[in-house]
Amino acid sequence: MDAVEAGVELLAAMDDDTLSVADAVDRLEAVTTHPEKTRRILDEAESRGIIDRDASELTFTKGGYGGFDPDIVTKDGDFTCRRCGTAISTGYFLDLDTGELGPFGSSCVRKVTGRE
């Protein structure tokens, strides 16, 4: 899975209208913790018209490429949440074009997509 493409898809799927850059980076850590890749994700999302950004805030345009709603796939098994590291028996995966992203616990999948 290409981290930059997955991150751009994740931003496109977020249900927020605005988000602080810090909160966006927190959510993008589900894809990568590498600062350079995070910058590339934000740059690419901006160039595709998914976000507008200033120094402290992202505004989601929901035009162009944005506004897509990924399926959330549920799987039972022994997993570790990709976001918080908690052991979980039900994993939630975002079905992105670049592949499945997860597993997440129920509260973390809502946090990552902005649906809390």
From TrEMBL:
Organism: Salarchaeum japonicum
Protein name according to UniProt: DUF5830 family protein
Upper taxonomic lineage: Archaea, Methanobacteriati, Methanobacteriota, Stenosarchaea group, Halobacteria
InterPro entries per the UniProt record, alphabetical: DUF5830
